[in-house]
Input
Amino acid sequence: QKEVEQDPGPLSVPEGAIVSLNCTYSNSAFQYFMWYRQYSRKGPELLMYTYSSGNKEDGRFTAQVDKSSKYISLFIRDSQPSDSATYLCAGSKAAGNKLTFGGGTRVLVKP
Amino acid sequence: ETGVTQSPTHLIKTRGQQVTLRCSSQSGHNTVSWYQQALGQGPQFIFQYYREEENGRGNFPPRFSGLQFPNYSSELNVNALELDDSALYLCASSLIIDRDYGYTFGSGTRLTVV
Output
């Protein structure tokens, strides 16, 4: 069993819809949780990170962490075709420690 | 210079050969990590360097080795290449300040082993 699991998708939504992405993890020691966006042929770009449980909002993006159920989520409001990419979730035990990634979810936002 | 730069962008090698990949960290960052990303998979941690010393290693064999230089640039060396080493190799630099992650990835080097 992988430490971080993601549905590979693809997840197809119409422009303007809310994109809902989820990950589950098994390592109770994870304290930091990140969401990265990766376009084809590019490196991952950090969207949001969260420390411990709770919600965090940044513009159209909201990240949620529920450590009791080991479940992390990312919501993208008012989705745009430019949001079409692969979204990677990751966990880490401490700031600066290695990141353990899920396999990524491919998202397609159709005009 | 801002951002993390990696070179080369693409590389084709023959099985059994050796390869060196290079990374220039983002200005001010003192930690560099290397990841391997196979097609359709998430990145896998190879190792991390902090102040020129290895500071953590993933589940990769010793033929994967690295260096970090005083200017915080870094190299990843892979000996005795195998077909399964074909992947995107990502370098990430960071500067840890409290809980600010500041983890910046480069665009990667795509290695093909034939």
